[in-house]
Write a structure and sequence with these properties.
By secondary structure, this protein is of the alpha/beta class. 40% of the residues lie in helices and 18% in strands. The strands form 4 sheets. The chain has a 6-stranded mixed β-sheet with strand order 5-6-7-3-8-9, with helices on both faces. Strand 8 and strand 9 form a beta hairpin. The relative contact order is 0.10.
Length: 385
């Protein structure tokens, strides 16, 4: 049986509202194993996955792909369409997948109460159960804790087909991937090896380009200086051969100028300048042909102020209901103006539930309280924009 593969043949793609193509003439080849898709936010990683799995059609070129394709979305708002079938499947393979990813029988019924990490595990469990030849996964570890991350990693290592993985998780990319695609629109650069090796090669390439650019720029400046020198020389010869200012009857001076014109000595500067034109133009084209990518520092800065009150929140010990069967017990809670507090625990342990319970009870004015949820649904995202 032949091994599955996936190929991009001269793919170009432009968003309907964009003036420039996102991808231009991209050709790629994927074999069995995992390939990482790397790039800054907004560079087209998700778009590339959707082109690979047929959810988007290219403007030019075509994708040569096997028939069984599965795309795992980054979002986890809705349960996978085939989750019910996976939960009801009595076959050994389905049981192994459910056990390996810790999928519970009631997860579909209480989807809205699941953590995003539990939803992601369900999503990937269904994808593996479908036995695709090409599996494209968008950010599988965004919402998972360390334990769930290990579970996902071991499950993905068992996948035998062509895998495409978008992730900012460097360790995951290093463990799983045999090649990485670095997206720098409109180009996609494939580099062998895992993320660490790929970034090392990328750094070496960038350093070589910078060195070449510096050398070409130095040569260009030298030619400019030489052109200036030869232009001055040509002006000097032009001045020497001019009869302007010579007395009308100074025949000896006029004869010397005529002799210089006949011998050609007065045009040496101009000839040297013309000889330099070709070299100067060639150096300029070489310099313009080198693209040095700028690097920008990104980050998040949150301005704020310290409350003048000594205590923001106090609560005696108590319990919170997580579902019909579980309660979350907590000790006495105190929050002071400069506290930094982490809520830790496995997926589904009640971290988000506790945070949602806590927020309305904080004695903080609305304008001075910011809540950033783990994931914003599509409707909220549109409203914010």
């Amino acid at each position: 049986m032949s091994q599955p593969f996936l190929q991009f043949h001269h793919i170009s793609y432009t968003y309907e509202t964009a003036h420039e193509p996102l991808f231009r003439d991209v050709s790629l080849h994927f074999t069995t194993g995992w390939s990482g898709i790397v790039g800054a936010n907004g560079t087209g990683k998700t778009t590339l996955l959707k082109l690979a799995t047929g959810l988007l059609l290219p403007d030019d070129g075509y994708v040569d792909a096997p028939p069984r394709l599965v795309y795992c979305d980054q979002r986890t708002d809705d349960p996978p369409p085939q989750l019910a079938e996976l939960l009801q499947d009595a076959a050994k393979t389905a049981a192994i997948i459910r056990g390996r990813l810790g999928i519970q029988d009631d997860w579909l019924a209480r989807w809205q109460t699941l953590s995003h990490g539990e939803r992601k595990r369900s999503q990937i469990a269904v994808a593996l159960w479908l036995e695709p030849e090409v599996l494209a996964i968008d950010e599988p570890t965004n919402h998972v804790d360390a334990v769930a991350r290990g579970i996902l990693l071991r499950a993905l290592q068992t996948f035998p087909g062509v895998g495409l993985l978008v992730s900012h998780d460097r360790e995951l990319l290093d463990i799983l991937c045999q090649q990485c695609l670095f997206i720098e629109p409109p180009e996609v650069i494939a580099r062998p090896g895992n993320y660490s090796k790929g970034t090392q090669i990328a750094a070496m390439d960038a350093q070589a380009i910078k060195k070449e650019y510096t050398q070409k720029k130095h040569a260009y400046k030298e030619l400019r200086r030489e052109a200036g020198r030869r232009r001055d020389l040509a002006n000097q010869y032009e001045h020497k051969r001019s009869k302007k200012g010579i007395a009308k009857h100074d025949h000896d001076a006029k004869q010397k100028i005529d002799t210089a014109r006949v011998t050609g000595k007065d045009i040496v500067g101009g000839k040297l300048l013309r000889q330099l034109d070709g070299r100067f133009e060639h150096a300029l084209k070489e310099l313009e042909g080198i693209t040095v990518k700028k690097e920008y520092s990104l980050g998040i800065w949150l301005p704020g102020s310290v409350s003048k009150r000594n205590v923001l929140f106090q609560h005696v010990s108590g319990t919170l209901p997580l579902n019909t069967e579980k309660l979350l017990a907590f000790p006495q809670l105190d929050i002071r103006p400069t506290d930094r507090i982490a809520l830790t625990g496995q997926n589904g342990a009640g971290k988000s539930t506790m945070l949602r319970w806590l927020l309305p009870q904080l004695n903080v004015p609305t304008g001075q309280l910011i809540y950033l949820p783990q994931e914003i649904d599509a409707a909220q995202s549109r409203a914010i924009l």
